[in-house]
Amino acid sequence: MLNYTMHHNRANARTAVSQAKTADAPAVMELLVGAAKWLQSKGSTQWSALLSGDDHHDVVGHIENGELFLFKDGDTLAGIVLLMQVPGDWDHHLWGPDGHEPNVYLHRLAINRDYAGQGLGADIVRWAETGISFPGKTVMRLDCIASNPKLNAFYSGLGYTYKGTSPSGFCLYEKPLTRA
């Protein structure tokens, strides 16, 4: 289970935050598949495996580990984010084998398309930086596909420092956390 302190349970005035439970998995998968369909409509293959039912990122496992957080507007799932205290194989592949101890890894930020364009993505990232803390973790790390300039600008605009591009074509970003 994830070891954390939640400092506040709202991403904004409309959106409450909670840790996902196993029963939330179907709604989470529906949101992720919707995001993958939208990405496909924009010409991206990102998350396309979800469209054929392949969840190689193991959403249920992350829920069981307490790493997935829900952002709800009333009963409506508006967004999700995955916060990992222990780097996964993907993180080791991108960032290399060393230097992972002080980092939290942000993955799977996804927004319900009904909430797109309202700043919820930025609110979720800011909540991940200040609304929750993890003992001994002082840096937030994330990656995004290099071929999406809008997404890269989004993270840069939130104060994330570009650390390079992996050989597999993913931009690496990190930001010091104000709570540790």
Automatic annotation (TrEMBL):
<keyword id="KW-0012">Acyltransferase</keyword>
<dbReference type="GO" id="GO:0016747">
    <property type="term" value="F:acyltransferase activity, transferring groups other than amino-acyl groups"/>
</dbReference>
<feature type="domain" description="N-acetyltransferase">
    <location>
        <begin position="15"/>
        <end position="178"/>
    </location>
</feature>
<protein>
    <submittedName>
        <fullName>GNAT family N-acetyltransferase</fullName>
    </submittedName>
</protein>
<dbReference type="InterPro" id="IPR016181">
    <property type="entry name" value="Acyl_CoA_acyltransferase"/>
</dbReference>
<dbReference type="InterPro" id="IPR000182">
    <property type="entry name" value="GNAT_dom"/>
</dbReference>
<keyword id="KW-0808">Transferase</keyword>
<dbReference type="InterPro" id="IPR050832">
    <property type="entry name" value="Bact_Acetyltransf"/>
</dbReference>
<dbReference type="Pfam" id="PF00583">
    <property type="entry name" value="Acetyltransf_1"/>
</dbReference>
